[in-house]
Every structure is written in C-alpha cells, then in structure tokens.
Amino acid sequence: MQKGRIINLNGGVYKILLLDGSIVSLKARGKLRYEKKYMVNEKSKSKKEVLTTIKNTPKVGDIAVIENGMIDHYLERKNEMIRPDIANVDQILLVFAAKEPDFSFFLLDLFLVNILHQNITPVLVVSKIDLLTDLELFELKEKLSYYENMGYKVFYVDSKHKEGIDLVRDILKDKITVLSGQTGAGKSTLINAVVPGFFLKTGEISQALGRGRHTTRETSLYPYLGGFIGDTPGFSKLDVLGIDKDELEGLFVDFRGHNCKFRDCNHLEGIKGCAIYEAAQKGEILASRYQSYNKMYKEILKK
Fold first, then answer.
1. Cα–Cα distance for residue pair 265/41, rounded to 1 Å
2. 32 φ, ψ to 5°?
C-alpha cells in the first residue's frame, strides 16, 4: 500500500506524486465513481435522511491510497471545490487589479462568499498599483482596511518592479494555493514574478505528465516551497453557488455582532429597526458590502 498526492487528472488517469518524489499514472477503482449514502437535505423542512447518489471520484489535491496498481480510496478531505474541481486547498490567492480593469468590490465580495462557503482561507493580492496616483492608492487602501479589520490578509504588488513580491512568496510556503480573481488582473504576470520561469517549469512538468503542452483547461498542482501552486481553469462562472438565502448572512462576517431583533429578518434595504440595515446606514458596515449582500440575496431568491 502506498500514499501520494493527486497532482493531475486527465482522461480518467490520475498523476500521483509519491512520498519518494516519483510520479505514477493510475486509474481509480470503479467503486469510486458514485456512492449511495443516507444524507440529510439541509434545505428540507423535515431534516430526514434520504438515500442520495453522490459523485465520489477522486480530485486533484486528494491524498490517494494505492493498492494493486489502482487508487483504492482517498483520505478524508478538509474541503473541496467544484469549479475548479480540487480538494484540500489551504488558501486562494485572489488577484484583483487596482486599475485596468477597475477594482470591483462586488466581485471581491462574491469571491469571498464562495470561498468561505467552502471553508478555504482567502488572501487578497492587489496588482498593478503602479497605475494609481498616490491619492488613489491611499483611498483604495483606506477602503480595503475594512477587509483587513475583518481578518483578511491584503497585499499590494507591482509585478513589473517586483514590489511586494517577497511577501506573496512567503505566504505560498507550505501551502496548497489556488490562484483566482478578476479577469485581466495579471495573475500570470504575478506568478511569474513570484516564481521566475514558472510557466516554463510547468510546461516541462506538463510534458512529463503527458499533457503535451501547457494548458489551463484542466487542474494541476505544482510543487513549490514545501507546498503546491494550483494551475486551474478558475471559476468559469462565478455566482452564489449552492448557497441558501439563510446561509448568506453568516458568510458576511462583518454582520456578526449586529444582532437583529426581528426573527427571520432578511436584512434587506429599507427595513426599519433591522440592526444590519441600521448599521449600514450609520457606516458601521461598509456601504458597498451591504449593497453586495442585497444584490446576492435577490439573486438567490430568483433561483
């Protein structure tokens, strides 16, 4: 029996990095396709367990247990994602541009809600700070300090001039990290500044994995500083994935401590006496955060 980290999946064949550093290509046993379990549907009022068929295939990031030349099973996951299809992620590096494109606070809040729902730590990296004036950068930092006060790490980088790169490199150590964020924010530029020649190296590894050429149409993990960097297709369509309207409030961590006196309150705009609404009116909750909550809540109701 052997164990190893799944670092790539392509056409039903898993590439597994073993403890001795070697890579093997294996398939998973048929029993790991689908599994029937008695589970509680959290959205049902009865809360009764019902027989449910769930997808049970291994994912990139899983610790696979190998027996007789096949993946027999994998160890319990601490988390898992659907898009991208990856498990056991420590953190997601959210890369957002300070400018070109303009910084989107709603998109940031949408990413944070999805990431926290999956029990993963988000880290925000603001790129292209060289495109801002000193005043613009000061104003952006002032607004993002609200997020830092919520406990999120925020880093400011200029990839071209290597400003802030060492700090980003440090947070990658010993972690499984996936990059995602705003389109056009310079994720490739950032990772090449952090890991010089990264895409050249991943191209070489891709050849070794039998992928032919480098592509991000599939998810792969690449060893780096005792951890892994996830090369993924990212979030192909970002929305409030699988989140119930009653869960949304709990994913806005800055709402905690503002206890609403109304039972089953949805905290939407204009509800007099709602502690969340009143906190937003007083500026205790950032206005853009409250607007993001309202927009997401209404999107969930539509579905």
1. 23
2. -95, 20
Identify the residue whose tokens are 């190998």: 66
The set of residues, in sequence order, having a beta carbon less than 8 Å from that of 121 and lying 6+ positions away, is 90, 91, 92, 115
Long-range contacts of 242-251 (CB under 8 A, 24+ apart): 242/82, 242/117, 243/113, 243/114, 243/117, 243/300, 244/42, 244/43, 244/300, 245/297, 245/300, 245/301, 247/117, 248/113, 248/293, 248/296, 248/297, 248/300, 249/276, 249/293, 251/112, 251/113, 251/116, 251/117
pLDDT tens-digit series, residues 242-270: 788 889 999 999 999 898 888 889 999 88
CB 104: neighbour CB atoms within 10 A?
16
Q: Give the largest Cα separation in the chain, rounded.
A: 65
According to the model, what pLDDT value does residue 37 have? 61
Query: How many CA atoms within 13 Å lie on the side-chain side of 170?
Result: 6
Which residues in 149-165 are b (16+ Cβ under 10 Å) and which e? eeebebbbbbbeeeebb
